[in-house]
Amino acid sequence: MEHFDQTDARILNELQRDAGQSLESLGDTIGLSRNACWRRIRAMEHAGVITGRVALVDPKAVDLGLMVFMQVRTHSHDPDWQAKFNKATRTIPGILSVYRMTGDLDYLIRARVRDMAGYDALYQQLIHLVPIADVAASFVMEEIKDSTALPL
């Protein structure tokens, strides 16, 4: 995007808070007309600043109350293994995020499952799809802060 200003940042902050609000409401909050807001949003979408609009779902309401972080270590770092791992993690619905890491850990996976049996099923599915040297899991006991909003 060629020009990103404070008004764009204010629009993004509002959309991160509630992307479902009307353009009229957004314009009132920002101090712009409905059309001016719409033009700025479209420009940010075309520039790739806004990559999508989603509904945030309460995991407990859909029986996915257990969050797990899986620390993955591998013996292989070749491109074929990485492509297979990437494809496998993208196809498993319970896996929400996958990060390639520095240090002792190769990958960090964040997943949501119903319970311990759900975790075991996810784990079995993953190791069936791609060979992994070691997996350690940590289960979230309390979510203190979980946000999707970027600080702008």
Automatic annotation (TrEMBL):
Top-level taxon of origin: Bacteria
Residues covered by the HTH asnC-type domain: 4-67
InterPro entries: ArsR-like_HTH (IPR011991), AsnC-type_HTH_dom (IPR000485), Dimeric_a/b-barrel (IPR011008), Tscrpt_reg_AsnC-like (IPR019888), Tscrpt_reg_AsnC/Lrp_C (IPR019887), WH-like_DNA-bd_sf (IPR036388), WH_DNA-bd_sf (IPR036390)
Coiled-coil blocks: none
PANTHER family: DNA-BINDING TRANSCRIPTIONAL ACTIVATOR DECR (PTHR30154:SF17), LEUCINE-RESPONSIVE REGULATORY PROTEIN (PTHR30154)
Pfam families, per database record: AsnC_trans_reg, HTH_AsnC-type
PROSITE patterns, sorted: HTH_ASNC_2
Keywords in alphabetical order: DNA-binding, Transcription, Transcription regulation
Protein name, per record: Lrp/AsnC family transcriptional regulator
Keyword Transcription regulation in annotation: yes
